[in-house]
Design brief:
globular, Elongation Factor Tu (Ef-tu), domain 3, Ubiquitin-like (UB roll), 5-stranded parallel beta sheet, 367 residues, alpha/beta, 6-stranded antiparallel beta sheet, 3 domains, Rossmann fold
Length: 367
């Protein structure tokens, strides 16, 4: 079963840098509720493909809630089919098929002090969070933004304007490889150590995220104040109306890097799987849903959707975090996981689209 998609009109295409474009979408009057979103979330776009019919790609929103339009920002990569197609072909007046916003890379409170790390096009969700926190929150924002050179800085003018508008509430630290070299742990530690009580968010190429997250762990930032965003290309078709096929290219967050090895499922090989049906209790938006008939052969997400529960999801492949929930009791095993790391798993986070019961009772929450 696919989630409902929408045809969105392109209002504008903005050249941010030589290899990055922002695509601005009109919000349909009859779909405003479906496109309510939190800063840091993403849209899934259907990109036409001669090989697969549709190549589905996730792109973070660089607009912020309350804006009149939706905006995603796409950076061209040398072997990225989707990013090149968007940069070369999309024009104002076109329409693209889009799934509603998803993702959990969002601040729990916009009033918190935020320490934000972005590398290259990883600025996209970070920009949305920055603008929302400054406009609607009360805390301070420190943004560390790494790029190859000055010409690669996406949103350079907008960041200058925000710094002038918000004064001491926003500190922007630009890190240019052409001047300072690649970001190194000692250098990132020297920055992060000044803000030990801030909520940290990290987005960018895998090597950059590995560096920064390692620094935050070393500084003992607790798990609840340490967040990172990762995307892996979707091999299937979440739009649901063309034949699914494997996608040849493997873009990871539209970056010219190979993905890190994904954490494996928490249940060890050989763990018994209950026969028949098990009991599940799931809390979502303040409501607890209880069922005694979750088939052991069906993913949790499929069971909840069949029961009419509005459980969140996007890719259904284990390649995004839209369907993530937290275990409170029991255990599940995941068939596929390209997005959760060891810390996520240790914290009880699982992917609903890949979760099969290992115990006779499973309790969890989407909060």
């Amino acid at each position: 079963m696919a989630t409902e998609s929408f045809e969105l009109k392109v209002l504008d295409v903005i050249e941010e840098t030589a290899d990055a474009r922002s695509v601005v979408f009109e919000i349909p009057a009859d779909a405003r509720e479906a496109f309510d979103y939190q800063p840091g979330q993403f849209l899934t776009l259907a990109i036409p493909s001669d090989q697969t019919g549709v190549a589905a790609r996730c792109y973070s929103l660089s607009s912020t809630p309350g804006d009149d339009a939706l905006k995603v920002t796409v950076k061209r990569t040398s072997d990225g089919y989707a990013s090149n197609w968007i940069c070369d072909n999309v024009r104002a007046g076109d329409t693209l098929r889009v799934l509603p916003p998803s993702g959990i890379f969002t601040p729990a409170s916009l009033d918190a002090d935020l320490l934000l790390f972005a590398g290259g096009s990883g600025i996209t969700p970070i920009m949305s969070i920055t603008k929302a926190a400054l406009a609607r929150g009360t805390g301070r924002v420190v943004l560390v933004y790494a790029n190859r050179d000055e010409q690669s800085v996406i949103f350079a003018a907008e960041l200058r304007a925000l710094a002038e508008q918000y004064g001491e509430r926003l500190v922007v630290i630009h890190w240019l490889e052409s001047v300072q070299g690649l970001p190194a742990p000692d250098q990132m530690r020297g920055i992060a150590a000044h803000f030990p009580t801030y909520d940290a968010f990290v987005c960018g190429p895998p090597a950059f995220m590995k560096c920064v997250v390692g620094v935050l762990k070393g500084l003992e930032f607790p798990r609840e104040r340490r967040h990172q965003e990762k995307f892996v290309s979707l091999a299937g078709n979440p739009f649901g109306d063309v034949e699914e096929a494997a996608v040849a290219e493997a873009e990871v967050f539209e970056a010219e890097h190979e993905p890190e090895d994904a954490a494996q499922e928490p249940a060890a090989a050989g763990d018994p799987t209950p026969q028949g049906a098990v009991r599940v209790e799931i809390e979502l938006d303040g409501t607890t849903y209880e069922y005694d008939d979750w088939p052991a052969t069906k993913p949790l997400l499929d069971h909840l959707l069949k029961k009419g529960v509005p459980a969140p999801f996007s890719c259904r492949e284990g390649n995004c975090s839209a369907c993530a929930f937290r275990l409170l009791e029991g255990e599940v095993k995941m068939e596929h996981n390209d997005i959760l790391d060891e810390d996520d798993l240790a914290d009880g986070i699982r992917l609903g689209c890949q979760a099969y019961p290992v115990t006779d009772v499973v309790k969890g929450t989407y909060s």
